[in-house]
Amino acid sequence: MNPAGGGVEVVVIATGVANLASVLAALRRAGADARVSRDAERVHRAERLVLPGVGAFGDAMRSLNDGGLAEALRRRIVLDRPTLAICVGHQVLFELSDESPGVAGVGVIAGRIGRLPGAVRVPQIGWNRVATSGSCRLLRPGFAFFSNSYCATSPPDGCDYATADHGGPFVAGIERGALTGLQCHPELSGAWGHDVLCRWLAQTRRPC
Amino acid sequence: MLTRRIIPCLDCRDGRVVKGVKFQSLRDSGDPVDLARAYEEQGADEIVLLDISATPDERSHHLDTVRSVRAALSIPLTCGGGVRGVADVAALLEAGADMVAVNTAAVARPELIGEIASRFGSQCTVLSLDAAADGRGGWRVVVRSGAERSERDALAWAVEAQSRGAGEVLLTSWDRDGTRSGYDLDLIGAVAAAVHVPLIASGGAAGAGHLADALRAGADAVLAASIFHDGDTTVGAVKAALTRDGFAIRP
Question: In chain A, fewer beta carbons within 10 Å around the N or the C end?
């Protein structure tokens, strides 16, 4: 519990290039006591962690490798501590990306990130319809805001997932235990995003 | 399927929303936080907030406006106006912008687009392109809030900006801005065909019919200001009309 009684404590990793203010504002609207950190120990131990992200895969990984944040993130995900990764944060959960060849991701999800399929406007900027597989707990069908050129094109094994379509189907989000990865931006997705964040905050921590 | 965006634009000066005709004759249109909140409730897909401050003192207040709007808003916020360098972009993002539009400074020094895109990503880098018809079937880039016409060809500039890393084009017709005579559809069609990044059309809307024309001409999103500020229509009414016309619109 938060000693101030303000809300559910959430640590948000400052990657240096994310739209941090929007993420913090959305978490606070959802009732969180959101704090920014780049401390690896805090990232590892935090009851709930958010990895926001805009920009390129390679830049995000450089920021995370600096100070051991990537390793702290990997360890907490292995321990199944509640972790929410957004946009490029979601992409770096995978092993590799065509956006930054040769750069290893955090690698907790098997597979690689590719360019959006099809001859469509890229980057994809706007609201897209999200469809969910039946067993998703956090994600619901609706419209979410996307801003991306790269994506996971096929659902990873062992994850519940949501999809959307821009020139072809792509992965809009994944859920696996206490790990949630969202290609869309819940912090910018109006009532749909607010509801996702509220459900995520309401998840109780699992014993580990 | 990706939906078409309806984007109210707030031109801000000294903490107030103003609107002019052809970038001049500004009049007060309200409080930016109140308007942004009202437009989100009406179904706006994004808000564009442009700083048209005349003095450095006014400009320093603008970041407070961005902070206040961000705290109230749960949809994307694109900010622009007076962006001179990477430090200005960082300050706007820190205050709560999600995307940043650059205009005059990039025309003067095109490398700025690459500097912003390589630091913050293309999806954050919006080229704000103000274009005026040259009377010979083409368009020239207009800078300094319409005070100056450059020698740059508008289409060539859009293509160059895209190759330098701009992830979106916010295209305003100087000839139509605030006139309510409809968007410049030839300009929209030409830019939409020249670039592969998303295109926001701006300048000249009087109602849902004009927005539909712009979408048919190739715009991915449409921006309007006075029709919403003056209460002629609402974002919700416009979206209902466009949905009836068969466009993919977020309900």
Answer: N
